Amino acid sequence: MPVVLGDTDRDADRFRFTLADDVAVVDTAQKLDAYLESHPDEDLVVVGPDVTMAVATEVAETYRLRRPHLGVVLMRRRMEVSTMTEALRAGVREVVVADDVEALVGACKRSMAVSEQLRHVESGDSNSRRGKIILVFSSKGGCGKTTVSTNLAAALSSGGDGASVCLVDFDLETGDVAIALQLDPTRTISDALGMQGGLDERALASLVVPYKANMDCLLAPTKPSDAEFVSAALAGEIVQVAAEMYDFVIIDAPPAFTDVVLKCFDMADTYILLTTLDLPALKNLKVTLDTLDNLGFPRTKWQIVLNRGGSRVGLTSDDIERTVGVPISVEIPSSVEVPLRLNEGITVVEANPRHDVARAFAELADKQRKISGAAKPAQVTKRSMFKRS
Ligand SMILES: Nc1ncnc2c1ncn2[C@@H]1O[C@H](COP(=O)(O)OP(=O)(O)OP(=O)(O)O)[C@@H](O)[C@H]1O
Ligand SMILES: [Mg+2]
């Protein structure tokens, strides 16, 4: 239940209608302080549109250090860049326009998700975990890296075993995880740029965007020019911290051996190496495997996945195995269901779990669980807070 720092009783009714019946409303910073003192589990303060910026920033600054898991969502009558900057600098999690009910509910939900992660981290139950890192790669574009990484992440996080997944979009210039899952890139890897050397679990929890229960995404920058500032060291830190927080870290990659990708090969437990049934893809797979051999990335980590299998295009899976000398681990069939669901912003795994494509991803997920030594995560209690979704 959020607490609202607002002005009038009329506001109170509105917030009760929008957020929750039992939302508490206080009209001064002192009363807010007293309320928070007596409610140590409170995780969210909504600052109403008529509260001055001076008070709003003071509230955010005060609690940022004192109660880091407490989120502050600020409402303003008008959205101005200077207001946004001032607010975010003070530690406000999100700023929304006063009349945009949907934006307010969304911001509150995201803030609660961050708080939940922070509490989870604070309780220390994630520290001993070391999740499994899975890199999805092909040196040829368009082979299905994003399709495989999003569906695999959805399959691993829906397995009923409570496993948590962080999908990291390291296709830094042209990443499409946000589009594939219709996520709002309010936070991206760009926000991690100033954190190199000091990225911790709390920071990462504030950067991920939740997609569904047990599945969060760290999205690629929306400004492609930010890509050059993401160093291999920062990427390594991100992956390391994510592996301490989640059971599985799935990395979607660009179709090239960039420094960031090489760092991921260094750190990953498994490489899902994609190919399709065409000669350029097969040639690229061969070159990839030779490169990995030359660089000493162990064959025990290789998993060849044939995407768009079953297409009658002259080449067969046998041809691929014979050419590269490595067995195919899983075949994902070619189906119109894939682009169809992509355009709906949902994975095939969730939309149509009985479909052959979804079954193939379930098989791929099973293989990862078997190899995985990841510990079962502590169960995170989900609260149902808001009337609208
Ligand atoms: N199994 C499949 N059946 C049908 N279409 C598929 C399948 N897998 C991928 N596709 C389609 O192929 C296209 C490319 O897929 P995707 O974006 O996943 O590839 P990618 O390797 O991530 O591409 P990029 O290198 O550009 O990042 C998409 O339109 C997707 O819908
Ligand atoms: Mg992609």
Question: Helix count, per DSSP?
Answer: 15
In the CATH hierarchy, what is the architecture of the largest domain at level 2? 3-Layer(aba) Sandwich
What is the CATH homologous superfamily assignment of the largest domain? Answer: P-loop containing nucleotide triphosphate hydrolases
Order of helices and strands: EHEHEHEHEHEHEHHEEHEHEHEHEHHH
Task: Give structural notes.
There is one protein chain. The protein is α/β, with parallel strands linked by helices and 389 residues long. It has 2 domains: 120 residues, Rossmann fold, CATH 3.40.50; 240 residues, P-loop containing nucleotide triphosphate hydrolases (Rossmann fold), CATH 3.40.50. It contains 15 helices and 13 strands. An 8-stranded mixed beta sheet has the order 8-9-7-10-6-11-12-13, sandwiched between helices. A hairpin with a 2-residue loop joins strand 8 and strand 9. Helix 5 packs antiparallel against helix 8 and helix 6 packs across helix 15. The C terminus is likely disordered. The chain binds adenosine-5'-triphosphate and magnesium ion. Adenosine-5'-triphosphate binds next to helix 6, strand 12 and helix 13.
List keywords for this structure.
389 residues; alpha/beta; Rossmann fold; 8-stranded mixed beta sheet; 5-stranded parallel beta sheet; 15 helices; 43% helix; disordered C terminus; binds adenosine-5'-triphosphate; binds magnesium ion
